[in-house]
Hints:
Layout lengths: L1 H5 L7 H4 L10 E4 L5 E4 L5 E5 L2 H8 L3 E2 L5 H6 L11 H4 L1 H14 L3 E3 L7 H5 L7 H18 L5 E6 L14 H18 L3 E7 L2 H14 L3 E5 L20 H4 L5 E6 L3 H14 L5 E6 L4 E3 L5 E3 L3 H14 L1 E6 L5 H13 L8 H8 L6 H13 L3 H9 L3
Parallel strand pairs: 4-13, 5-6, 6-7, 7-8, 8-9, 9-10, 10-13
Antiparallel strand pairs: 1-2, 2-3, 11-12
Helix pairs in contact: 6-8, 6-14, 8-9, 9-10, 12-13, 12-15, 12-16, 13-14
Amino acid sequence: MRESLRDSRYPQLLAVCDDPGQDSLPSRTVTEATGSIVKIDAAHGVRERTMHPLEALLTERDWVLADGAMGTNLFALGLDGGACGEQWNLDEPARVESVHRDMVAAGADIILTNTFGANRYRLALHGLGDRAIEINESGAAIARRVADGAERIVVVAGSIGPTGDVLEPLGERTAAEAFDAFAEQAEGLRRGGTDVVWIETMYAENELDAAVRAVKDIGLPFLVTMTFDTGGRTMMGIRPQDMPGLEPCRAHGAFGIGANCGIGPAQLLDSVLGLRAVAFPETIVVAKSNCGLPVMGDDMQVRYDGTPQIMADYACMARDAGARIIGGCCGTTASHLTAMREALEQRPRGETPTHASVEAHLGPLKVTLETEEAIARVKEDGEPRERRRHRRRRPS
């Protein structure tokens, strides 16, 4: 049975099955990194596997559509600039719910909870630091109601963003403090019924590590996205090519990894190309781009300049670049998402985009030298360096 499990779809069971001292354990369940549940009998035979809804969607087709922006759409519904959008989970739940419903109607398979900044430190700026669990639970419960009312599978992803502080040694916030703040968020999201946690807009490995460990302790599967800006790096210098090898992503079993936010779809595709070039083929890559760049209109209102057509082109190019979970970030509305869904459903898969084709469809792109080098190595060697390095670490 141990040998057959090595070749099965259940790699997370190996730690259990390879220990001969556990042969007498009674029947029990094991949760995979994907969130799927496997029931095992005393002889370590797999009896039943309950597939996680996100894994089920990814089994059905080669792309899954995540939602668009939350903040942009709350501002359109009357949220004041500088106000705490997460407080609307308590004070204006119907308006938050309407954003989720619009995204589902537009075709979203995944909806992110209105909890991006709902950690104790960001909430403390609004006098809400002691209500983190309550606000996260409420945010997850709102999304859960919408997902449960849909006529198809809709996954609730609990959004966790950065604390807003730089961690030691460059800042004053400790990793332990960040861990505790993320643990509160994760617990609230769990209570509210989230399916998976989406740790997003991260830029530093130590803060990402704190968030991942907190979510793992709660027992929820998770995805990770980082933000890469004009230099093709995060604020702390991490490149897309570095991400698959980061300890929080590699050692803790992230469901998927990728990029979000940034400076628009063209630059985000550069990040996806760089990440995909070094990741294992089975890695679920995530793309969730801003809807262009913010522009001040004649009415003094800020709007993003990405059109539905641009976001539709981006969605298909992200799919062709190797992303399997695709969505929009800041500025992305339901109308953008509708165009993205229609394009993904109707346009055939194309060749892996080049930087020239990205610029032709999506606008100017600052091509990073590291991305070009990573792609060139794959073409030359036939295998990503990151994958070769991981293989050397594996026991024979």
